[in-house]
Amino acid sequence: MIVLGIETSCDETAAAIVTADRRILSNVVLSQLEEHRPYGGVVPEIAARAHLDHIDRLVGQAMDEAGMGFADLSGVAATGGPGLIGGVIVGVMTAKAIAAVHGLPFLAVNHLEGHALTARLTDNVAFPYLLLLVSGGHCQLLVVEGVGRYALLGSTIDDAVGEAFDKTAKMLGLPYPGGPSLEKAATAGDPARYTLPRPMLGRPGCDFSFSGLKTAVRHIAEAMPRPLPERAQADLAASFQAAAAESLVNRCRNAMTMLGQSHPEVRRLVVAGGVASNQTIRTALTGLCGDFGYGFTAPPPRLCTDNAAMIAWAGIERLRLGLTDGLDFAPRPRWPLDPDAVSVQPRATARPRDSARDAAQSTALAARS
Ligand code: KG4
Ligand code: ZN
Fold it and tell me: With CB atoms 3.0 to 4.6 Å apart as the test, which of 26, 44, 89, 174 could cross-link to 66 if both were Cys?
């Protein structure tokens, strides 16, 4: 079984070919960083146009690198949501056209399911597992019970952790995109230099909060001369990163404690999404898993950030179960993984990156509460 995957839900145009025996034959990612850099975040209209300009070439490149013709494929998968709708439409229409012309099954993949199942592609992880999904638009803890079967344990009541990294980086005068540049700056910094709050520490449950931490950094940064002295920039970055990591660990600890009672069969933590490429966070989670006797899986960084191999893989998982979609599938700006879960609190504000993906999902969740 060989599937072409297409990802266009945010600011990466991506195409990949993946096989059912877990080989990634090609994985092409074109980042739109330069297009969005002047605005300090993703501009949905610019993203949609860039996807349109590049998608055909990228699909061709992925097919060439894999040495495939369309006739060799078993199906075509595209991110069907949640995401910036202009981009999602471009990917879905491209996949539908290829599927229609070549008589192939079409699979509409939930972008979050792509992140959630990546560890099964990279490490052949078995169900069930605890998933910490940390990206620019999402911060959730879920039990992954099977393909399409997710139970939400907690999510953020304000900012997603990647969003907090991005905004904090901006406050510190670090270059866009914020997450990776903050991590880089932090390597030279002292994480104990500044005392920052550990959001939600000691609170029951598995919800997250990062806006207080971000505000605490802002207060410290605003009291400093501009541009920030390099030492202060590095120390503040390291202090923020340590606080964020500790908060994530605390929430995961609560989840593991709860699951010990209700779901003792869950014995593994998987981390996914762009923030999962952060080394400090990976190390902190490894330590926590040691305490609980949990296995720990973190996909390689290039498969944590947005890519199409995860979409192709989720497509394979769905195709194996006969979960194909009709060509009448409508792209979805919002698409929660656990539709039965209720949001703790809808997000008050959106932000440029992932704003549609995130705000729309929160609205969907809130509508059920
Ligand atoms: O999964 P992803 O590529 O896109 C979304 O679905 O949002 O995640 C992007 C997010 C951004 O907020 C980015 O700053 C963050 O992941 N990120 C990181 C790192 N690499 C990417 N955050 C912290 N440390 C990193 N190394
Ligand atoms: Zn993502």
Answer: 26
Distance CA 271, CA 132 (A): 5
pLDDT for position 363: 34
Q: Which residue has the tokens 């866009």?
A: 176
* CATH of residue 292: 3.30.420.40
What does the pLDDT read at residue 342?
A: 58
Count of the separate structural domains present in the chain: 2
pLDDT in the model for residue 54:
97
Is there a single domain that holds both residue 167 and residue 313? no
Asked if residue 278 has its Cβ within 6 Å of ligand 1, the reply is: yes
Q: Give the model confidence (pLDDT) of 267-283 as tens digits.
A: 999 999 999 999 999 99
Q: Are 140 and 113 in contact (CB under 8 A)?
A: no
Residue 52: what pLDDT? 96
The packing angle between helices 85-102 and 44-66, to 10°, is: 30
Q: Is 342 a member of any domain? A: no
Which of 165, 171, 183, 337 to probe ligand 1 with, by most ligand atoms within 8 A of CB? 165
pLDDT of amino acid 37: 83
pLDDT < 50 stretches in the chain: 343-369
46 and 135 share a domain?
A: no
For residue 357, give the ligand nearest its CA: 1
- Which among 210, 305, 337 is the best mutation to test ligand 1's pocket, defined by most ligand atoms within 8 Å of the CB? 305
If asked whether residues 229 and 289 sit together in one domain, one would say yes
The predicted-structure confidence for 341-357, as pLDDT tens digits, reads as follows 754 433 333 333 433 33
Within 13 A of 358's CA, how many CA atoms are on the CB side?
Answer: 27
Which residues form the domain of 22? Answer: 2-117+303-320
Which is the closest atom of ligand 1 to the Cα of 137? 7
CA atoms within a 13 Å half-sphere pointing along the CA-CB vector of 189 = 26
Question: Could you tell me if residue 146 is inside a domain?
Answer: yes
User: Which atom of ligand 1 approaches the CA of 277 most closely?
Assistant: 26
